[in-house]
Amino acid sequence: MAKEDRAVQEIARDEFVHKWHSGEPFILIDVLPHEHFLRVHLPRAINVPVNLLHDLAPLLFGQHDQLVVYCSNSACQASATAAKILMLLGYDNVLDYAGGILDWEEGGLPVIREAVQQERAA
Asked: 3-class DSSP state for residue 6?
């Protein structure tokens, strides 16, 4: 099957939480714009906006790293797009946490909220 024909694999919250607590290594990637990342993101996440992924992924990730991408919620398609881009770039271990930040918070799980207002006050 050609790389472009492979379906994006999604990971549900329960499975993701299990992966998180198991200590299994993975890289968590918030693919939303940096301004959104500054407001709220999942713990351990790095920010690589989807429009920069093509250029930055080869500098940041190994071809066989476990990559988990997410965006804001299931209506947002940025994480599915990011997963497809990564697959086309040859990454073979990509999961899309399609529920994103909204699903994470609905599960009562912690998020990091930055004080964007502090930046403006400085």
From this structure: coil
Which residues is 70 bridged to in the sheet? 30, 97
Out of 53, 69, 71, 101, the active site residue is 71
What is the distance, to the nearest Å, from the Cα of residue 103 to the centroid of all Cα atoms in its chain?
13
The CA distance from 54 to 51, in Å, is 7
Mean pLDDT, rounded, for 25-39: 97
Q: Do residues 72 and 40 touch, judged by C-beta distance below 8 A?
A: no
Give the Cα separation of 81 and 86 in Å (integer).
9
Report the distance separating Cα 114 and Cα 101, nearest Å. Answer: 14
pLDDT in tens, 14-23: 999 999 999 9
Catalytic-residue membership of 76: no
Torsion angle of alpha carbons 20, 99, 82, 52, nearest 10°?
Answer: -80
Kindly tell me if the per-residue pLDDT of 58 is higher than 90: yes
Residue 44 φ/ψ region, left for φ over 0, alpha for ψ in the -120 to 50 degree band, beta for the rest: left
Q: How many residues does the chain have?
A: 122
